[in-house]
Structures are given as structure tokens and as C-alpha cells.
Amino acid sequence: MVEAEKEIEKREAGATQTADIKGKLVEFLWYMKKNGYSVETITTYITAIKKLLENGANLANPEHVKEVLAKFNISDAYRHNLIAAYTLYLKMQGLKWEPPICNVTRTLPFIPTERELDDLIAAVGKKTGAFLQLLKETAMRKGEASKLKWINVDLQRKIIILNNPEKNGKARIFNISDKLANMLAALPRTSEYVFGTNNKIARSSVFYRLRKQVAHKLANPRILEIGLHTFRHWKATMLYHETKDIVLVKEFLGHRSLDCTLLYVQLEQALFR
Fold this sequence. Notes:
The chain is mainly alpha-helical. The protein is 60% helix and 4% strand.
């Protein structure tokens, strides 16, 4: 009887702790939403806090969180996200900590050839192909493209308007090719969103699976280096090469600061000498 009572108490304590954690996550989510954080940031930070919890971090003890972070075998960029998320989590509660040092070195992105991008676009399905062609021509972020609505697509005049930019970016308007217009026109209109309501994670998962198949079929391992954000890097580099106008590239990408755009000057000079 005593052992049974102890087991019941243990389960009840565990249930209470789980409920407290869920409550804190919901509170954190609403804290970010109320303070104007983007959906991208909210999703990233909630995922980061869950990652800490999954690895046994005691969120009430910053020193224990440091110990957990020290044991992670992850990239500096990912570690930086975990630290940023926990720092904001503490701020929500009016607390501070001395975060561990984490210096993130910016790496240069992979820039494929246009032929490699076109080979990939041609080899995937109709819907994914249209999504990738959109990224190639407009340099949209995958989240921006995922949220594109039919109301903002004018196939007759071949114009697309982006009014919901991510990363605090600027709204933009794009001219698109006949090829992309035809690809979009062939898609079924089952939702107000051009590419349906499935989430970015599912879309990314489909892309990575198809990319692997295409790389194997074409016997080109470079295809495996192409990510959804690669199309944005490629377009920005090519646009600067064509125009030598870094301000134009900045506006095309929707950057607020020119500092973020200068990367493409270096890439263009290296690729075209």
C-alpha cells in the first residue's frame, strides 16, 4: 500500500510538472506574439525551448541550462538560436543570465549554376516545380512564398505582389516570366493560398526527399547542396552581376540595411572575376 501511494504521488507530480511546462510554453508564445515577433521567430524560439526541455534542461536554473548547452554537439548557429531563445524566455519573467560565449562565423552560401537549378525544377512535381521557379525568379524566402495568396497574383499582367514579407523586410512587387505564369496557371485553386495550406516543414520535407532523388538520378552530388534559400542567394548574385547596382539588389530582396546585401558583391566577384 505504501509503495502504491508513493507511485501515485510520483505520477501526480510528473503530471503537474508537465502541465507547468506546457503553461510556460503557451505563456512564452503569447509573450512573443504580443511583442510583435514574426511567426518565423516564434516558431524557431518555441522549438528551441522544447529542444532544451527534451535534453533535460531545468529552465528555472540558468547554470543548468549552460551545462546542457555545453553537452550539445551542434553548430554554432544552432547554439546561438538556443541561447537567444532562452534569453528571451528569461526576459519574459523579468530575469537575466550571463549567456555562454557563442561566436557565429558567417559562411558563404553555395551558388549553383542556373542549369543545376533548372534541372532540379524540371525533375520535381508540378506543384513543387512551380514553387521552386517562383523562388528562382523572385528570391522570396520559402515562408513568403508559402503564404502567397492568389489575390496577389496577376497572371494576365504577369505580376506578383508580396505584402507579407518576413524578417522585417519590405513589401515588393515582381514581374514574372511566361514560364512561371503558365506553371502557376496550371495549379488547382483549392485554397486562397497558391500552394495550399500545408505548412513549411512539410513542404521542406517533400523538397529534400525529391532533391535526393534528383541528385541520384542525375549523378550530380552538387544538387544536394541546393536548399530552398539557395534560390534567393543565386538570384541576388545574378542580379548584381547583371546590373552592378547593389541598391537595386537591396530593394529587390526587401532588405532594410545595405549591410545584408553586400555579401552578393563578394560572391559575384568570386564567381565572375
